[in-house]
Specification:
The complex is a heterodimer of chains A (about 325) and B (about 290). Chain A is mainly α and about 325 residues long. Helix content of chain A is about 75%, strand content about 0%. The longest helix of chain B is centred in the middle third of the chain and has 37 residues, at about 80-115. Classes of the chains: A mainly alpha (about 325), B mainly alpha (about 290).
């Protein structure tokens, strides 16, 4: 319980810290925040500038400005997007489900593939398989995701036609009734199998591309985590009992190696979010990554800050959950 | 005080035997990294002599596929993609070295101060690193660059903002643990000044882990800068830069050469530094080594 309390307190403090960073970047760093946030409108419409200054308390001292900023945040006011002319918050809530579906799928792929390859690498350590996997995993973390997306789309869509092109569904296919916003899950819930197939086909390539970095990372991590425990006494004991090596590795070794692997979860999430910003627009995937990309290329400052703040908050919550999960899997952590 | 010899697996970290680093160069991966990185550095230096065309000169030969006269084809303004890819190394490589050097300097000094003084200095520095680590790197770098205004200079500043904390943490941790370690106390007991203890006993041990991190970060810097330029926040046209060239490539999807070759350049540079960094880590810290011996 005390473990949980301490983590929760740290989470809240970090959350406040994040809002402070966002505040500094939105309102202190730009030479004229009104001009930066209003863009073209600032020149055309002095009244809008005045209204903006009053709304954000820019004529008041800094601590008051920050208080005003926090007050807006608490009510969910992230400002207005210059591009869509809508509140950033409604933009975000529209785009989040697409990214959630992509991110979750990608992380699943990465964990399954990365852990399997890592185990393989550890079991075959110092042999050819191990060396090849080392180069592959280094390749994974060296790959510019946005380039991999371009090449993969060119090869698998344009040349081979194995996967459909951009978007989340084939043209003419309507998403199943909105429950979660994840098209695959919604289609299954509604029992519309053809919609599920279409959604899954559209999902596979972007999710795979986004998984590349994390597969590299997890392979390396799993390998060293497995090697830490593979020659422990109880593993030797299991072998001595005559258990097949397969059982020994999957039951005894993996069980002990799993907690450190779980800690990579937070980092894996951060990598996927980084990837979505760079990749979603290439796949025409209507998520917050594409939103961030368009905001960045059009310098839509309120939108950029809204996305950053949102992603950072989700990120620290994910890290918090990973911590808790780690504490559950490995009770020693709770004491330390 | 422990009279026992260090366990063998720590030997690489703590010994300053001359042969320790030498073992890195016996690995094929380290050699591959050296050759690749060396080739790119040579290209960056010699590019005015080897690039067949001016990277900025436009021509009427738009989006030509690769051929003998244009090895990597031409782009949407008729510029030679091969020459642009080569010239871009002059931008990315020096910037990567500069960035990492600055990050080591800033992070090292702040981390050293935090570890040495502890107390509120430590508290302030560490909370600052926490804040940076609370954001996925490119998200924070994107926000910083966008707030400052898109330009290469601001992108470099943004990368610096996200890079220094890892050095601060590593250096702080090492300074703290080494300051309390037996052999540093022994040196102090033998009458070494705290400055001598820091320079002779602590610094060489900090250097290894920092060197590994810095080598890996050379690749990360290239990757992050290319990412920011891909988003339009870094190098501005018509400057030849790999990330923005890939971005143009996405707009001319069927002209595969426009995006593919600059991407290969990024991949090969980053791969080179990762090969090197990984081999260095093997040599300096056999515990996390890929070629672990048990």
């Amino acid at each position: 319980m005390r473990f949980l309390g301490r983590r929760l307190a740290a989470l809240v403090l970090l959350g406040i810290g994040i809002t402070f960073v966002a505040f500094v970047l939105t309102e202190l760093v730009p030479g004229d925040p009104a001009a930066a946030n209003l863009g073209q409108r600032a020149i055309a419409d002095p009244a809008a500038v005045q209204a903006f200054r009053e709304h954000y308390g820019l004529d008041k001292p800094l601590p008051v400005q920050y208080a005003v900023y926090l007050e807006h945040l608490v009510t969910g006011d992230l400002g207005q997007s210059e591009q869509s002319h809508r509140p950033v918050r409604s933009d975000l809530s529209e785009f989040v489900p697409a990214t959630a579906e992509l991110a979750v799928t990608s992380i699943l792929i990465a964990f399954v593939l990365g852990i399997s390859l890592g185990i393989l690498s550890a079991v075959r350590r110092n042999r050819l398989t191990d060396q090849v996997l080392r180069v592959i995993s280094l390749g994974g973390i060296s790959m510019p995701t946005f380039w991999l997306a371009l090449v993969a789309l060119y090869v698998f869509f344009f040349k081979l036609g194995w996967v459909p092109g951009s978007g989340r569904l084939d043209p003419g296919v309507l998403p199943a009734p909105h429950v979660t916003g994840l098209y695959t899950i919604d289609a299954l819930l509604a029992g519309q199998f053809d919609v599920f197939v279409s959604a899954a086909q559209h999902l596979i390539l972007p999710a795979g591309v986004l998984a590349a970095y994390n597969v590299g990372l997890l392979t390396r991590f799993t390998r060293s985590a497995v090697l830490e425990v593979i020659n422990n006494d109880y593993v030797q004991a299991a072998r001595a009992k005559g258990l097949p090596e397969r059982t020994v590795v999957l039951r005894h070794v993996l069980r002990a190696a799993l907690p450190p692997i779980i800690t990579v979860g937070g980092l894996a999430f951060a990598n996927v979010m980084t990837g979505t910003v760079l990749v979603e627009s290439i796949f025409g995937w209507p998520g917050i990554g594409q939103y961030a990309f368009h905001s960045a290329t059009t310098l839509d400052l309120p939108a950029i800050m809204g996305v950053s703040l949102f992603v950072a908050v989700v990120y620290i919550v994910v890290n918090f959950l990973v911590d808790i999960l780690y504490g559950v899997v490995d009770p020693r952590i709770r004491v330390a | 005080m422990s009279a026992q010899p260090l366990p063998l697996r720590f030997a690489g970290v703590f010994s300053r035997r001359p042969g320790t680093l030498g073992s890195a160069w016996r690995q094929p991966l380290a050699i591959a990294g050296m050759v690749l990185a060396g080739a790119w550095i040579a290209i960056a230096i010699l590019v005015p002599l080897i690039a067949p065309y001016n990277p900025l000169t436009q021509s009427s030969q738009l989006v030509l596929a690769p051929s003998a006269s244009h090895l990597f084809g031409t782009d949407e303004l008729g510029r030679d993609v091969f020459s642009r890819v080569l010239w871009a190394s002059r931008l990315s490589l020096p910037l990567a070295f500069f960035l990492v050097a600055m990050a080591v300097l800033i992070g090292g000094v702040l981390g050293g101060l935090a570890g040495y003084f502890g107390g509120w200095v430590d508290e302030v520095v560490m909370r600052a690193t926490d804040l940076v680590f609370a954001f996925p790197t490119i998200i924070l770098a994107m926000a910083v660059t966008a707030a400052l205004g898109p330009s290469l200079r601001n992108a470099v500043l943004a990368v610096l903002v996200v890079f220094w904390p890892s050095y601060a943490r590593v250096v702080r941790g090492l300074v703290m643990s080494l300051g309390q370690s037996d052999y540093v106390s022994a040196a102090r007991l033998l009458g070494a000044s705290s400055r001598r203890a820091l320079v002779v006993d602590v610094l060489p041990n900090v250097a290894g882990p920092v060197l590994v991190l810095a080598t890996l970060d050379l690749g990360n810097a290239v990757l992050l800068l290319a990412g920011l330029s891909f988003l339009g926040l870094g190098a501005q046209p018509p400057t030849p830069e790999w990330g923005s060239m890939v971005n143009t490539g996405t707009q001319y999807f069927e002209r595969w050469w426009m995006g593919t070759f600059p991407g290969f350049a990024i991949l090969s540079v980053v791969l080179a530094f990762n090969f090197l960094g990984d081999s260095l880590r093997d040599a300096l810290d056999p515990r996390s080594s890929w070629a672990v011996q048990r």
